[in-house]
Amino acid sequence: MARPLKIGLDYFPLNTNIDSDDKIQLVESEFGSKGFAVIIKLYCKIYADKGYYYDWTEKEKLLFAKRTGESVGLVDEIVKRSVKWGLFEESVFNQFQILTSAAIQSRFLEAVNRRKNIEMFSEILLIDINDHENGINVNINSINDNNSTQSKVKEIKEKKNKGVVPPSGESSPPKNPKDQKPKSEGEEKGSPPEEPKEPIADKIDFAKLLQLINKETGRGFQVINENVRKKFRARLKEGYSKETILKAIKTAPQSEYHKGNGCQYLTPEFFSRSDTLDKYGNEASATSPKTEDPKEQPKILGPWAS
Hints:
By secondary structure, the protein is mainly alpha-helical. It has two domains: 18-143, no CATH class; 200-296, no CATH class. It is built from 14 helices and four strands. It has helices spanning 22-31, 33-49, 58-68, 72-84, 90-96, 102-111, 147-161, 185-188, 206-217, 226-238, 242-251, 256-260, 268-271, 274-281, and strands at 54-55, 98-99, 117-121, 137-141. It starts with 21 loop residues before the first helix and ends in a 25-residue tail after the last helix. This is Putative phage protein (TIGR02220 family).
């Protein structure tokens, strides 16, 4: 029988001045030495188990609390504050209830540089794989192939169907039958209702957008996750134009600061921020009112405009 492939690590590097990290100190200021101990044990669990992430499910909360000897409530609160202070990626945690970070993923890839093959999930990938290849064959898979995550998705859908929304949002109250519009003849016969059409100017070809970001920054991002996509859509709804986003993507890599840092901070999420567009987009479109009629929208230029 073939020997099972190892996933986690036997050991991981820990900086001797880790307690001087502002993020660690913020957690310690709230929870004292217990906060520090929980974080270190979380790192141990992450690297030993999956290598670069940890599912923070109800089951794992109970088991992890038992290992630490602390209450589930305290451990969960420490984790939430750690996410808040940036020790773990907030967008990934909110969407998937997974603990990870760019630093954790980088250390993991550096530690497994002698392995021939490893697998990583695209939806939670926060780093540029090309910066860490070193001969490793990194298989980028979808997190939806993971059984535990499929269970999460199924649970979320079931809650939505019952009018309950998971912690990331609030459910809307059921509609009053008097307020509902009468069904059309087609709907009475069972025809599917027409979905509201998204204005053309609000559509984004994220595949082309990703190609553009990689081209201008010299990076090699594999995916724009759903949380970042929502941010881009939000910027358009706020009134930022696609030309503004396009100009920011082209302008930011030319700045002396980002050139000096090898464009390491120029991620898709970076370009989805309003302050980035204000600084590098150099347009006043965010302050001008947005035309509601799609026909009156200006023609969108750029290689990623739909």
